[in-house]
Amino acid sequence: MQLWAMLLQYHENDIESILTRAYDGSPITEILNYISRSYQTATLHETAEHFMRMFKKTYGMTPGEYRKSSR
Which domain holds residue 66? Predict the structure, then answer.
């Protein structure tokens, strides 16, 4: 969730500009194209690393450690 909040904060003006135009009659595909262009550089590896860091920061253990402790 924090990743999306950071992305939204970073691109808030861009998204607001696109959404404003979309409400003025521009096709929704413009929004989808923007998302595709802007976020294709976030790799699965980067996303997984971020998830692991945030999970450990929140719960004090890795997801694997959490899974083992809940068995």
Answer: 44-71
